[in-house]
Each structure stands twice: as structure tokens, then as C-alpha cells.
Amino acid sequence: MKLHKDEIAVDEVLVRSLLGAQRPEWAGLPLMPAGAGTDNTMYRLGDELLVRLPRTPENARSVLKEQVWLPRLAPQLSCPVPAPVHIGTPTDAFPLAWSVYRWIEGDEAAANTVGDWAAFGADLAAFVEELHGADLMGARPADGLDWYRAGGLKPCDPWISACFDDCRTLVGTELDIDALERLWRAALALPDPSASPVWLHGDLKPSNVVVSAGRFHAVIDFGGLSIGFPDAEHATIWDYPAEARHAYWDSLNLDPETWARARAWSIAVALSGISYYRETFPAFVAECRTRLQAILADAAGRQAAAAS
User: Fold this and answer.
1) What are the domain boundaries of the chain?
2) The pLDDT value given to residue 1
3) Model confidence over 222-281: pLDDT tens digits?
4) Measuring CA to CA, which residue among 307, 299, 289, 306 is closest to residue 262?
5) 295/2 Cα distance (integer angstroms)
6) In CATH, what is the architecture of 12-102?
7) Which of 16, 90, 100, 226 has its CA 20 to 30 A from that of 62?
8) Which fold has domain 107-307?
9) What pTM does this model have?
10) Other C-beta atoms lying within 10 Å of the C-beta of residue 171
11) What is the pLDDT of residues 183-216, one digit of tens each?
């Protein structure tokens, strides 16, 4: 499934040719698809390895970040994170950097894998607190660790406003786009965050959080790794049930302004996802719609509670 105009096609034949040239001892291991997101395509290699290939040249920048910084960050984190065991070099057939990682056993966070959503939300908050407290080790945004979600909301307003217009046409009958835009505008009116820059994962959605035995276990896909303001880190919490969201907020003791900016980031990412992937990735568009529905329900509940 091609998602981007500049995407490089990947299949099993290509992956085996890369392995044969660069890690021939692995070339004969069983190889099977292990999922594909908006940025990367994955194959499980044998029982213990994962091959991860970026879809586009821009996505390859994220691969390089993981290769450089994950080995340095991992000792500061108490949960498993991807461990690169091979740094794949570009070839004529695949002219981008790619990686092989240790396989992390477990399941995506979901209704049938998480045993206690409140405990999960608290554990996810503990990971975020740990990551945000990790030593920067001299790293700066200029070291390839800049990203739009690591800054303030205001620079994104022109293109997010266009996404609001898109979504009024695409899903306006299913979602209250005007209410979502009011939440966005209210967050824009707030002062920019004043917190010190921290390490950010950038995309803690359910498919990037691994569960084992019903509990939070590991975090994968650090392609959004960056240094900046923490607000957007909290944006994916609306992808989880209310019990997880409330426990997460309570554990981090987030102030209302941070919560409002995080919610605005959540709206922005979902709206832009619907706008960009509306014809190419219907499953992801459905996830974005579900997130926006959760945001509207949560906001309505908070408004009702404040009025009572």
C-alpha cells in the first residue's frame, strides 16, 4: 500500500537481498510482514529480530535518529526500547538507511490486551516522566532532533486551518468540526509553554506501546524522537479509554493550560491525518476520527462537570 508520492516500494525479495549483501548469516531466516505504519515497513526476521525500512527519504532521517540516540537513551529508561543490532546502509535497490532491531515480545495496547486501563495510564505516565527527565547528553534540536510537534502551536495554524476546512467537507456530518476548532483556537490564545526542553518520543499511540501479561511493557518506534516542549507528548492520550486518560493526567499532575495545548496537538494530528490519508490509508483515517470523537466527548464531560 503506497501512502506517499516519493515512497520506495519494499517487498520480501528486496529485504532478503539487503540481508544477503550486508548480513548473510541472517538471509536464510524466516521472514514475514510485521506491520506497516505511515513512516516505516516492518518484517519479523526469525524469532529474535525485526527489520525496519523507511518509506521515504524524509522518514530515513528518523531511522538515523534511532540508530544514534536509542543506544544512549536506553540505559536511562527502565522499560525496553528498540535496540539496533544492524545499521543498514543504502544500496542501489534501496537508497536509504534502514535498521535491524531486537524483537520485543508483546502485543499492541488494546481492549483485549490491557488488563487494567487505570494502571496502564499510570505506567505510561511514569515512562513519560522518566523520558522527559533523561539527560540530554549535550543533544540539541539542531542535531536532527527538531520536529514541528516539539515547538509551539502557532506556527502550525495556517495548515491546520486548511485541514479544518478539508474535514468540514470530508467528515463534517459525523463530527462537530466547529467545536474542535473552538478548542484549537482557545489553545492558540494561551501563552506558549515555558518548560525547559526535554526528550520527546513524539507518538505514544497504542500501536507504539507494547503490553505483556496485561501490563505496560515497552515502547517502540522512536521515529519522532526530538527535543522540545512536552505538550504534544500528551496528545495521544485521547487514543486510550477514559480510565487511562484520567490516571495519566493525575499521575503527571498536568495543569489545565498544558492539557489544553496537548488536546490542541491531538486535534491537529488527527485532522491532518484525515486530510492527508483520506484516499490512501482508511484504517488510519478511522483512528483519527475515533480520536476526535473521544476529544469531543471528553470536552463535553468536563464542561458539564464544571457547570454542575
Assistant:
1) 12-102, 107-307
2) 66
3) 999 999 999 999 999 999 999 999 999 999 999 999 999 999 999 999 999 999 999 899
4) 299
5) 29
6) 2-Layer Sandwich (3.30)
7) 16
8) Aminoglycoside 3'-phosphotransferase; Chain: A, domain 2 (3.90.1200)
9) 0.94
10) 17
11) 999 999 999 888 899 999 999 999 999 999 999 9
